[in-house]
Amino acid sequence: MRISAKHKLLINLLLIGISLLVWVILLFNPGGIMTMEHCHVSASGPSAASLEMLLEMNPVSDQLLGWGLMVVAMMLPKLTLPVQQLFATSLKRMRFITCMLFVLGYLATWMLVGLFMVVAITLLNLWFPMSFMPALVVLLPGLVWQFSPWKQYFLNQGHDHRPLSAFGGAALRDAFQYGLVHGVWCVGAGWALMLFPMLLPQGHNAAMLIVTFIMISEHLEQPRLVKWRFDLRLRLFRYLIAQTRVRLGAAAV
Amino acid sequence: MGTQVLPLQTIDFSVPNPSQTANLSLPLYQGAGYRADYTTWSLLQNGGFMQFNLNLSSACRVSWGMNVCAAISNGVTNNPISIHVNGFPFISGYSDHNVNFHPVVWTIPPSLLKAGNNTITVSLDATASTQLFIRSVTVSEAVLTRNNAWNNGGSFDNSDLLWYAKGVGVMMSRALSDPTSWWFYAAIHGQYIVDNDGSGPPPTDYPNWGKIPPVPAVPITPLPGASVMAQYWDQCQHAGWYFPPWHRGYLYALENILSIIIQQLGGPSDWALPYWNYLDSNTQQLTMPPAFSSPKLPDNTANPLYVTARYGLSGTGKVVIAAPPVNQSCQSNTTYTNQYGGGVTGFEHFGSSTGNLESNPHNIVHNQIGGNSTTTPYYGLMADPGLAGLDPIFYLHHSNIDRLWAAWNNAGNQNPTDSNWLNGPSASAGRQFYMPNPDGTAWLYYPSMVNSISQLDYTYQDLTLPAGKNQMTERLFTLTQSLTEKNIIPMQNDDTPELFGASSGKINLGAAGAEAKIRLDAPVRGNVLKSLKEAAETSLPDDVYLLLEGIKGTADANIYSVTVNNLNAGYFTLFGIRKATMKDGHHAGAGLTVKLNISAIVDELHLNDALSDSLDVKIMPDGNVLQGAAPVTIDRIGVYRVSNK
Ligand SMILES: [Cu+2]
Asked: Which of B426, B502, B638 sits opposite A242 (nearest CB)?
């Protein structure tokens, strides 16, 4: 069933608002949670001692927190459509909780992936401290993935709707599962785009912003034929231009 | 385009130096000369032309008339002329044999004209051996009238149908890759030849266009270039709020192409696409006009309007619309968005928010014409949007749908004023609506350009709205047993509809149909019952809808009836299900969603004290159904409440 304009706006404001708030935190980087601290003394080579020092300066818990914030900032705007749909098809008194569980399920998938990513990032930092090498090494398969049919497959799956139970525990379970599964499709489509900025010793924030732009654009695009395709995916850009034009010219139509 | 841009005006050539009128001037007349003996101008037999400049404030449909007389030499008239409109060969080799002054008239579609100066060249062909005298040239804005196809018995005695057949024949003779061919045009609606980036992979067997049993013999080569296919093909807008305007532009562009072909063939200058009004249940018009079921034209050549894969409800090939279920109760709707014309969507080849005009009569008529064959595993062309544009009856069906929309507006109902609607999908940077012009160029249009038929210079023979009470008025009478004379029009409710109940688990729509128990939520039920008990003109009762969410499968032609607690809740079709189910298609395999208003049923249950904590929904096949390769499933059946307070 359709969702009202008011509720749609509310959901969009909430998700995009939280995302923007977290963006502000990330960009100001309090406590340095978003950057790898390096011990220049131990930068001579990887060793158990240097790993220990690295982990001491960048505890896994801190890194996961940073990862989580990054996921929230970059991904929440992509959830507006499924949350709207879930909202409209849930019992009124359960709308909030089902939408919450969906978002939690989705974040849970990304956090699980984050655990592996953080380990990989730590090790790469150990071997190549302050180097652009790891980022460049990921960039190549990342680009291949970006234009590959596999990526399109995951993007297409991300548009899938699932039958959801309406009542009681089943409704809660379905919403959470829907979030988990939606997260899997999203990870498949976006892992390379997420990993690349994390590996940059510099320009991390700028890269994250660009990547977010691309990911939201991809999300706005309708499912397409699964095949190799060179596409910069700038739909969001075109969308913003079109809306500005339409709004400015609305009186003239 | 617009009205009243071009008043009637004439240049008089019975004087040596004719004076120009406001929009019409004569900059060149090489090879044409003033004949003092006949006090007229003539095109000379040694090759010559007259070139007119037509100045328009905006492109509109122009009636081009000339008062002419054919010269006789050695007892014969041989004066073939050609007319070019902005370089396009609009009329080629027209030869006049009437040796007295008389008017000849052509209608130039707006697509060949533009705002500002237009060049119209009337030239004598090189083969001419006699002259053509032109006493005057007249232009005016023209309005075409689309007429009832059942005029003159719906046979080829109706010249609209005869010339439609001839025009379709010419389009069918053109190559698939030609944007003005019949096949290309059908592919604009939807096709099963190639995976046109998101239209989904074509099926290997029927309905792949290569596997369609003739007639017609459908070509699958030569394909146009990939960018042309991406621009035009698989465009039809269904299950969303662009359904009416997109189809209006689709018909209009086809009518322009056909109108030129028909005039080139020597047909009438005022030919317009007819409509089949299958809603007039008092007459024989429920039957398809006989011109479509005859394999031959009157001259005994093959009839291009005849199609083999058109099975009808019975599956035997006889096409008769069953009314009910087909009706025009959608015409009593008073709101476009989410009601009459569909829910808010972007470019949606198959969305999930079907308007009432689209679900009934549009969808049901599609499937009642197409139907399922009883002797082959095929369904009819009309029953699948990837095939429907191939069947010539399609355009007469949609002409009627367009007529209903025009009549609805005529009665004072408003189209959306939201800029996202007026600007079409370009407002969201989506694919835009393009149609081929007769000269092969692209026409880009927005709903704002097809908002009313007067913008497009055509009208319909009949634009009356059926009289009758709307559903809310009927309900109030049932609930309160007090007679309301006037129609009660509820305020548009903008709140999110509230889930009232739902089935649990997927439902299989097998050959015998399906039954499901829909559990109702107790607190919501309390609210609904309260609104029904308190129903009055000042306190309108809640509306209740049944939503079949995520119907998936490949059996497009199937029609089903729905009952709720054994009370008739209406009908739905699977028109478009194959395309809506394709995983890599535009709609990501979300399937179709069907919405039925069951308020009257809930009223009756309430009056009988029978609205319990569940509803029994029964879905039964109507007519001859195919199961298809994939079984038909429904993700969930939901019941929703909309408050009218
Ligand atoms: Cu259609």
From this structure: B426
Question: Is the pTM value of this prediction over 0.80?
Answer: yes
Q: SS in 3 state form for B375-388? A: CCCCECHHHCCCCH
Structural element, H or E, at residue B607: helix B599-607
Chain B CB contacts of A167 under 8 Å are 502, 504, 519, 521
ipTM, two decimals, is: 0.85
* pLDDT tens for each residue of B62-110: 999 999 999 998 899 999 999 999 999 999 999 999 999 999 999 999 9
- Pick the closest to residue A131 from A191, A193, A43 (CA basis): A43
Strand B433-436 versus strand B498-502 pairing type: unpaired
CB contact under 8 A, A161 and B494: no
- CA angle (B357 as vertex; B353, B363 as ends), nearest 5: 80
Q: Do B585 and A223 touch (CB under 8 A)?
A: yes
Using an 8 Å Cβ cutoff, are B397 and B276 in contact? yes
**Is the previous residue joined to B222 through a cis bond, with omega within 30 degrees of 0?**
yes
- Beta-carbon contacts of residue B252 (< 8 Å; ≥ 6 apart): B435, B450, B456, B458
CB contact under 8 A, A1 and B547: yes
Query: What distance in angstroms lies between residue B349's CA and the mean position of ligand 1's atoms?
Result: 10
**Closest among A56, A55, A65, A71 to A33, alpha carbons compared:** A65
Asked if A1 is an interface residue toward chain B (Cβ–Cβ < 8 A), one would say yes
CA B352, distance to chain mean position in Å, is: 20
CB atoms A246 and B423 under 8 Å? yes
- N- to C-terminal Cα separation, chain B: 42
